[in-house]
Amino acid sequence: MRQWILGLGLALGVALSAGQSRAEDVWLQIEARPTKAEAEERARAYSGVFDNVRGFALGNGWYGIVLGPFTPEEADRQLRVLKTERMIPRDSFVADTTKFDGAFWPADGAAAPSPGAPAEEAPAPETATAEPLSDAPAPEVAVPAPTAEPQPDPATESPQEARAAEASLSQADRELVQSALQWNGVYTGKIDGAFGSGTRKSIAAWQEKSGHEPTGVLTSAQRRALTEGYRTEQAALGLETVREEEAGIEITLPGKLVAFKGYEPPFVQYEGKDGSDYKVLLISQQGDENTLFGLYDIMQTLEIVPLQGERERKKSAFVLTGANEHVASYTQAELRGGLIRGFTLVWNPKDAAQAGRVLEAMKASFKPYGDKALDEGLGEPSSTPAADLVSGLQVRKPLLSLSGFYADAAGTVVTSADVIRHCGRLTLDEVHEAELVAEDKATGLAILRPREPLAPPTHAALQVALPRSGVEVAIAGYSYGDALDAPVVTFGTLSGTTGLEGEADRLRLTAHTRDGDAGGPVFDTAGSVIGILLPRTMKDGRVLPDDAVSALKAEPIVAALTAAGITPQTSALSGAMPAEDLTRHGREMTVLVSCWE
Does residue 387 have a pLDDT over 60? Predict the structure, then answer.
């Protein structure tokens, strides 16, 4: 697709450059730069795509890069086509040729257009990039060229001389100082050019941070170091304002760190550029409070949102922060007028200082507009299984998931000890954090407790008096992990009341189960729990039939719970439940137990 667009650009450039400029011809202005050197560099870059690139001085020290000439009708058409194909910035416009001065590109000169050529009124020059982000207008964060400064002061510049030099600064230069102080994290006030007590304290903080005497008044050399460092860092990031019309969001993004990737509703995705570890998501969808809360939960399942970090959720907004040794991110979203809009910034923790500046620029510039949310039909299907993705983003997956069952009304869970090996974190139903209460290595049982109180729909009634062999039993478990929202109930037969090698604490079952069912409850027909399904193991190279499984009896489960200070409920149930009631009973009691890194 990219090659096709570039091919179209070359074809258009050839076609549109034919012919000589006429009085009625007009031009498309696609960029403006504050220095001739920058403008020549950008013109040279565009000339690699178009062969009708020209450059003119615009006055006030700015230089414009244009395409043309065109007839007025052709200019309107090409403006629309090139914007649609994202080959020129979205803020490109039909230029007012009366503001053109001398030509600077191509190097051998270019005829200036007729002053009487039809044109629209051009806005104040703004900067942009040759590879604009999605719908990116020229950057509003660009710093205007400074006005002439007093002659450089000697290193021994006195406070009086420093104040005199400061007094001669223009409004733009004073605002530039405040912006640079803000960029360095020492100024939080308004950018108004007024050097009050807040600005003076910020100057002193920057001076102290930079190893200077904290006088609160910048010498000329300090001011140059502050502002030039600010410009250099901004240029390295390529900060520019993006107006994403499909999402209804305007925001400043680091154009040299991320590039537009595509639409995956509710996200507009930007991926790292030139080896950058940064990623950006713009969030845009229709919805209400429930939709917002659902988004809040979904975001926390993504690998780009580490679990270690602060969370803040209000009625109409939320903020998520997270960091681990591999990734850090910040997400904010707000519900307003039936529209949810926000953004996520993702970065490598080693870039924390730089990312902090990018994040502040994004937060300060974020502006939802209009009444439009991202169309759910945008984007293309991914080849990665949907269960592993949310809107094209990788979902965090557990190391292992098995089954368990609630043993009391407080949400205590009994499961297989296999699920707790090498875990950094345990969850119940992938939502509730859990902790290990006890492990019985002899029986392979683990007892878990939710970190916050739970009220399960029902819990196990343990039956130590076993039914006779040959009766029907049921096993509830998450056979397919989290692929299904509810556990599977499998019916089978109690084929023996001892293990295959005569173990007195085991049951032999005939049932077709899967690995994920291990740790799930085994029921008799009355709904009492007579055991817990054990993981299928191969011993001495022997492979058992697919339907031969074993369970630990209820009696050692009662003993383990009692030893852990938990009073188990024993069963007084009798008779037989209808199959559908037994299925519902099993599903309400069974829980998905997951082990995470």
Answer: no
Q: Cis bond leading into 385, ω under 30°?
A: no
**466 bridge partner residues:** none
pLDDT in the model for residue 119:
36
Q: Is 152 helix (H, G, I), strand (E, B) or coil?
A: coil
Q: What is the pLDDT of residues 469-512, one digit of tens each?
A: 899 999 999 999 888 888 999 999 999 999 888 899 999 999 99
Please tell me the total number of residues recorded for the chain in this structure. 597
Measured CA to CA, the distance from residue 113 to residue 128 in angstroms comes to 23
- Return the sign of the alpha-carbon dihedral for residues 425, 426, 432, 436: negative
Mean of per-residue pLDDT scores for the chain: 83
Show the DSSP H helices in 48-151 as ranges. Answer: 72-84
Torsion from C-alpha of 62, 67, 72, 76, nearest 10 degrees: -100
Give the pLDDT mean for 153-171.
Answer: 76
Q: Which two tokens stand for residue 144?
A: 């205007």
Cα torsion through 466, 472, 476, 478, rounded to 10:
130
- All domains in the chain, ordered by first residue: 2-105 (3.30.70.1070), 167-237 (no CATH), 239-393 (3.40.1000.10), 398-597 (2.40.10.120)
| Cis peptide bond upstream of 146, omega within 30 | no
The Cα–Cα gap between 184 and 356 comes to 10
Q: 48 Cβ partners below 8 Å, 6+ apart?
A: none
Residue 148 makes CB contacts below 8 A (sequence gap 6+) with none
Helices and strands (H and E) in the chain: how many = 11, 29
- Listed residue (314, 308, 307, 310) closest to 292, CA to CA: 314
- Asked whether residue 156 carries a pLDDT value surpassing 90, the answer given is no
Residue of higher predicted confidence among 193 and 142: 193
Q: What are 246's two structure tokens?
A: 């499909």
d(CA 399, CA 419): 9
Handedness of CA 413, 415, 417, 420 (dihedral sign): negative
Q: Is the pLDDT of residue 19 over 50?
A: no
Kindly tell me if the per-residue pLDDT of 106 is higher than 70.
yes
CA dist 566 → 447, 560, 593 (Å): 10, 9, 19
The C-alpha atoms of residue 1 and residue 9 are separated, in whole angstroms, by 12
Tell me the per-residue pLDDT of 75-104, one tens digit each, with 9 for 90 and over: 888 888 777 666 788 888 998 787 788 899
**In 272-395, which residue ranges form alpha helices assigned H by DSSP?**
289-299, 352-365
Mean pLDDT of 4-12: 37
> pLDDT tens digit string along 233-262?
888 899 999 999 999 999 999 999 999 999
Q: State how far the Cα of 165 lies from the Cα of 146, in Å rounded to an integer.
A: 14
